[in-house]
Amino acid sequence: MNSVFTVAGVSKWNNEFKVRFANDLARVKMLVKRGNTDIELIELPREMSKPEIVTFLKTTELYKHPEYAAAIDAADEKYNPLPRVPKKRGRKPKSATVVSMDAIKARAMIAAEAETVSADA
After folding, report:
1. Is residue 112, in this structure, part of any structural domain at all?
2. Closest by alpha carbon to 56, among 37, 79, 36, 39?
3. In a domain, 30, yes or no
4. Residue 11: which domain range?
5. Could you tell me the pTM of the whole model?
6. Hey, which end of the chain has fewer CB within 10 Å, N or C?
């Protein structure tokens, strides 16, 4: 269920700015009652969803205030997350094993002896 809102802005609660969504400016009373300060709400040009609102708020005067901008950016990350890039899956490359020349010669001699034993049989 995608809700739409006609009013949005920011407020300070517990020393932290947050983006607020509402359907009328009467929301200010509720925010004040709950202890919010520095309340800045604006009427939106049309009904919008939360992702649309935070994108729109970046184009308003509110975004010019650094503390409001930080709250709007945090809401943007929440409501408009960047697409995740899938990790590549597959086999990991094997680490190179160092084999000495002596070990190779020893294997060759064992293989040659095995051939002569099987040829004699």
Report:
1. no
2. 79
3. yes
4. 5-79
5. 0.66
6. N
